């Protein structure tokens, strides 16, 4: 019988290119990412809600082209330019707008491709520096659309696999039926299942129902 319980290990998600799940929701993003040499000013913003696949695609691009990947939330001051290309994941969380503006200018002057990710279109990023916002609004931006049923099911399976959780297909369908249709809710539910399994030593229908109740589905 397959092992049902989650393991208390450091289980990081896989960002390998082969583990990315293609879908109509991310087709436009994948098309633009396939040709970085065609980006206007060699710059592109990829945006979408949490869990939509932005960070996965950011890692894919960095690995595919040998670009440096940095977290926007950690960008401060004048960062050194990478040799080939630059990915700023969660650039909308940058605490230093002047540093982000410098990064855009420096990459442009050096002819480096620059990929930025964020949760909203760049015109809605929370910066007040006029020159930065003007530059962001002028940047080509591609959004990841709402996931299809097929993509949601595949994402749930991937989150479970990342945590080495074996969950019966019927219980996976129960989650998909009652959870909000977004990637963040799937990830939250799998995290809760993992914690519940470690705490109680079981992972069954009652565990799934309890997680759904805690996430606000009173019909379960």
Automatic annotation (TrEMBL):
GO CC terms, sorted: plasma membrane
GO molecular function: DNA replication origin binding
InterPro entries, A to Z: P-loop_NTPase
Top-level lineage group: Bacteria
SUPFAM superfamilies given in the database record: P-loop containing nucleoside triphosphate hydrolases
BP terms from Gene Ontology: DNA replication initiation
Protein name: Chromosomal replication initiator DnaA
Organism lineage string: Bacteria, Pseudomonadati, Pseudomonadota, Alphaproteobacteria, Acetobacterales
């Amino acid at each position: 019988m397959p092992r049902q319980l989650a393991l208390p290990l450091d289980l990081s998600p896989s960002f390998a290119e082969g583990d990315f799940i293609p879908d109509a929701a991310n087709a436009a993003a994948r098309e633009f990412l396939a040709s970085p040499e065609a980006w206007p000013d060699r710059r592109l913003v990829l945006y979408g809600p949490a869990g939509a696949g932005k960070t996965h695609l950011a890692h894919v691009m960095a690995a595919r082209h040998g670009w440096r990947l940095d977290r926007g939330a950690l960008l401060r001051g004048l960062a050194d330019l990478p040799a080939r290309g630059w990915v700023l994941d969660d650039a909308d969380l940058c605490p230093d707008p002047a540093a982000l503006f410098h990064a855009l200018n420096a990459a442009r002057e050096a002819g480096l491709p620059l990929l930025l990710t964020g949760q909203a279109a760049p015109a809605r990023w929370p910066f007040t520096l006029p020159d930065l916002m003007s530059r962001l609004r002028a940047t080509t931006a591609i959004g990841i659309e709402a996931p299809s049923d097929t993509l949601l099911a595949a994402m749930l399976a991937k989150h479970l696999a990342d945590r080495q959780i074996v969950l019966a297909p019927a219980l996976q369908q129960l989650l998909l039926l009652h959870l909000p249709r977004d990637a963040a809710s799937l990830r939250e539910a799998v995290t809760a299942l993992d914690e519940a399994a470690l705490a109680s030593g079981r992972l069954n229908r009652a565990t799934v129902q309890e997680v759904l109740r805690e996430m606000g589905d009173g019909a379960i």
